[in-house]
Amino acid sequence: MISILAIESSCDDTCAAVCSDAKILSNVIANQEVHAKYGGVVPELASRAHMRNIVPVVDEALKRAQLSLNDMDAIAFTQAPGLLGSLLVGAQFAKSLSLVLNMPLIAVHHMQAHVLANLIGEKKPSFPFLCLTVSGGHTQIVKANSPLDLEILGETLDDAAGEAFDKSAKLLGLPYPGGPLIDKYAKEGDPLKFTFARPLPEGINFSFSGLKTSVMYFLRDAQKNDPEFLQMNMQDLCASIQYTIIEILIKKLIRASELTGIKEICIAGGVSANSGLRKAIEKTGKEKNWNIYIPDFQYCTDNAAMIAITAYYKFREGQFASLKDSPSARALW
After folding, report:
1. Which helix (H) or strand (E) holds 154?
2. Multiple choice CATH, 3-115+301-316, 3.30.420.40, 3.10.129.10, 3.20.20.150, 3.40.50.720
3. How high is the mean pLDDT of the chain?
4. Is 101 helix (H, G, I), strand (E, B) or coil?
5. CA end-to-end span of the chain, whole Å?
């Protein structure tokens, strides 16, 4: 049995998880509420919070798994991408444990881990599968040939879908993080009430900067004529913005499936927790005869369970890291 302690600290959530073979025994997440008043994550504050949280979070993960550090076979950490200061906290903590306990060290790419979150649990996709990975910093369509053989087929040329959600929310005057609030209000709104730009570059790449600009100018002009426009139309605005983003995502995913012939379809990343996206992909799956796989909510946003499951497959292949391996804000797979 292979037991791994995994640490995730790429942004503002301090996370630790324990897995034995491919089974997740614990998954602990400490959120940082300090960023809300700034309207976004402040890197320096995130790093300091990670330093406060990492020991109790790791301790809680071990307790829930009913295992000790001496029961581990390896220590895993997120190497990239992310906020460099945040990554350093998790990486140095993992390296210290690896050195003191004389255990192998496993470095994991954050986006690879999001894809492999679909391998947690009983219902798993068959290889090859396609994964639409959508988060605050990334939007990609990935072809997974095996757990450690992933190929990016398409990605955003500018902004990510999650950023489009959060920036649109800010324009609507909603507090950070605004993406979940758009999802909440959209449930009561008319998704066809307002029309926004739908940038669709060739192939299966994405673009969301034009959509953000479209929302910005639309709201500016609407509020000139009616200062109470936002308050009176908040639900319809949220529904229309969300509908536009999801329509772009689904169109590209359909195209990727047509080009590859793959009908094993997954989603991953923080935006995969969006209820509108989940419903849309399930509806499309029925229409296209896809087999749909959606991770539990706890494995959609940043978490260490996805780091642990990725580390398990890397352990089996002997893909270990060195104490000299440094975190990177933008490292490629």
Report:
1. strand 149-155
2. 3.30.420.40
3. 94
4. helix
5. 27
201: its two tokens? 């570059």
Alpha helices, DSSP H, located in 141-272: 161-171, 179-186, 209-225, 229-260
Decide which of 200 and 73 is more confident. 73
Rounded mean pLDDT, 110-128: 95
**Residue 205 burial (10 A CB sphere; 0-12, 13-18, 19+):** middle
CATH architecture assignment, domain 126-294: 2-Layer Sandwich (3.30)
Phi/psi of residue 329, each to 5°?
-70, -25
- What average pLDDT score do residues 190-213 get? 94
pLDDT band at 44; cut points 50, 70, 90: confident
- Is the entire prediction scored with pTM above 0.90? yes
pLDDT at residue 255 is higher than 70: yes
For the chain, the domains span: 3-115+301-316, 126-294
The DSSP symbol for 198 reads -
155, β-bridge pairs: 140
In the predicted model, is pLDDT for residue 13 greater than 80? yes
- Tell me the C-alpha distance between 183 and 180, whole Å: 5
Residue 66 backbone zone (phi > 0: left; psi -120 to 50: alpha; other: beta): left
The set of residues, in sequence order, having a beta carbon less than 8 Å from that of 223 and lying 6+ positions away, is 229, 230
Biggest CA-to-CA distance, the chain: 67
